[in-house]
Amino acid sequence: MRTRHRSAALLTALALAALTGCGAHVAEDGKGDSAKASGSGRSGHYPVTIENCGTKTTYDKAPQRVVTNDVGIADIMFALGLEDHMAGYVMPEYRGKIDAVAWKDAYGKVPWLSKKAITKELALDAKADLVFAGWNYGFGEDSDVTPASLKKLGIGSYVLTESCRNGADGEKGTARGVMPPLDALYTDLRTLGKIFDVENRADALIAKYRKQVADAQAKAPEDGARPTVFLYDGGQDKPMTSGRFAGPHDIITKAGGDHVMKDLKDSWTTVGWETVVEQNPDVIVINDYGTPTAEQKKSFLKSYAPLKNVSAIKNDRIFVMDYADLVESPRNPAAVTALAGYLRGVSGH
Fold first, then answer.
1. What angle do helix axes 332-347 and 181-195 make, rounded to 10 degrees?
2. Residue 17's closest CA among 130, 153, 128?
3. For residue 196, which of 30, 24, 31, 46 has the smallest C-alpha distance?
4. Are 195 and 166 in contact (CB under 8 A)?
5. How far apart are CA 239 and CA 234, in angstroms?
6. 238-287: per-residue pLDDT in tens?
7. How far apart (Å, rounded) are the C-alpha atoms in residues 79 and 316?
8. Exposed, middle or buried, 40 (CB in 10 Å: 0-12/13-18/19+)?
9. 238 in Cβ contact with 272 (< 8 Å)
10. 124-141 pLDDT tens trace
């Protein structure tokens, strides 16, 4: 019965979408046409055209019922003060450490729609006019939650810039990332500022974050004393790590480390343990979320025989950081500061 009700809802939504043209619409020629979402802004601000992951879209008004997927993406909306434009957020509980963030109150104000995965049914039930997610951060062909599938339901999409597909692994590949990670954060803040007519807020945040990063860089170890760093997300057969287009690359580099996976043209992906051994990192950063816990990950690394001669293991140089600090989010600049402090101790500065 539940499946039957969902199917009926989808068919109804498709019919309504065909009649009303609601949501974010993208022109087939790439020039973009109007997103008929409700909202208001300064007289003369709209229509506004933005480009997101290579797709141009024009908004006549600011979206009013945004649904976000994952903690870093909700953080971006809340940091911009856009909670009144949200219908809710989707986020696993284990990723949501929100007690210390400046926008904690916004998390209490906006509905927490699901602690599982975002679905088309959820977006429909929330009457979403825009879904803000990313490839592998809610969007994916396996779940059939994609900008294309949402468009058929009259729902617009905004793709997290960290997750833009870059085609590095073939024409139909899924390698992600098109710019340095902090540039991706600044790009999303700037673009969303245009969409929601809060450009001054966006500019102020970008200036604040750039200063935070510059201050951390000024105290970071110099090039000759940079510790090499490997990011360990998880996995035992093969480690999940980050390439040059995920948050950890800029966090490690700006903090004064030498990111050993800097030549990997992807965001989050797997490598072989032999690569880690060959790189012999001075420091391993653990991405802490869910299970296994950070302590369990640390125990595995220290007990895994192939790593016993790796510098980070021999010298017990393992630094734990939170998931929300390492994915694209407004927490990245503070993460640079925290890691820079640790790396100064490693390098003897």
1. 160
2. 153
3. 46
4. no
5. 6
6. 999 999 999 999 999 999 999 999 999 888 999 999 999 999 999 999 99
7. 36
8. exposed
9. yes
10. 999 999 999 999 999 999
Partners of 284 in the β-ladder: 230, 318
pTM as predicted = 0.86
Element spanning 277, H or E: helix 273-279
Q: Specify the amino acid at residue 214.
A: A
β-strand pairing of 318-322 with 268-270: unpaired
Going from the C-alpha of 127 to that of each of 66, 179, 284, the distances in angstroms are 9, 33, 43
Backbone angles phi, psi at 112, to 5 degrees: -90, 100
Gap between the Cα atoms of 331 and 101, Å rounded:
8
Tokens standing for residue 146: 């994609």
Q: Where are the beta strands (DSSP E) in 96-217?
A: 112-114, 130-135, 138-139, 156-159
CA atoms within 13 A on the CB side of 135: 22
The 3-state DSSP composition of the chain as helix, strand, coil percent (nearest 5) reads 40, 20, 40
The token pair at 127 is 């009457």
Pairwise CA distance, residues 345 & 89, whole Å: 38
Question: How many CB atoms are located within 10 Å of the residue 198 CB?
Answer: 20
